[in-house]
Design goal:
With 153 residues, the protein is mostly helical. The chain has one domain. The chain contains nine helices and two strands; from the N terminus they run ββααααααααα. The chain has a two-stranded antiparallel ribbon with strand order 1-2. The two termini are 29 Å apart.
Length: 153
């Protein structure tokens, strides 16, 4: 869930809130082992929709372009239907990178803009274009770390 620090008015998102919150996920995320458990049990279609909604992109573009699945397959599922372990793990890894971007930019719109803007450090690709593969997610996370440390990216 998004939380607000009383001293500041910044909103911080975590993996749980990006995937629809604790109630939707059915477990409280405290450690990486909780994420493994969540991946093994499968996240729901509603969690996928929460992440896609946060990113502000059409479900069809996300599902077909990033998850390499037919949008019809997803549309046939109920909100409470669980996705397979591989897809769930992929979505969790995307949420972790988006969470890191929120920590770096501290603003939802800045995150969305950064993800959709070509980046020289990514060979001119937009970060979101690399969400389809683990190597791409790792590269994005590395670049976010460099930005955090003040290294031009």
């Amino acid at each position: 869930m998004a939380t607000t620090n009383k001293k500041e008015t910044k909103i911080y998102w975590d993996v749980s809130s990006l995937l629809g919150g604790q109630e939707l996920l059915g477990i409280r995320i405290k450690t990486d082992f909780d994420l493994i458990k969540l991946s093994n049990q499968g996240i729901t279609k509603a969690s996928l929709d929460a992440l896609v909604s946060f990113l502000g992109m059409p479900r069809k573009a996300f599902v077909e372009g990033i998850l390499d699945m037919s949008v019809k397959t997803i549309e046939r599922k109920k909100d409470t239907d669980r996705l397979d372990r591989h897809t769930s793990s992929h979505l969790i890894e995307i949420a972790k990178v988006v969470e890191h971007a929120m920590e770096v930019f501290e603003d939802e719109e800045k995150v969305r803009d950064w993800l959709a803007t070509p980046n020289r450090a990514l060979n001119g690709m937009c970060p979101i274009e690399l969400f389809s593969m683990p190597t791409g997610l790792g590269l994005i996370d590395t670049i976010l770390g460099r930005i955090e440390e003040g290294v031009y990216s």
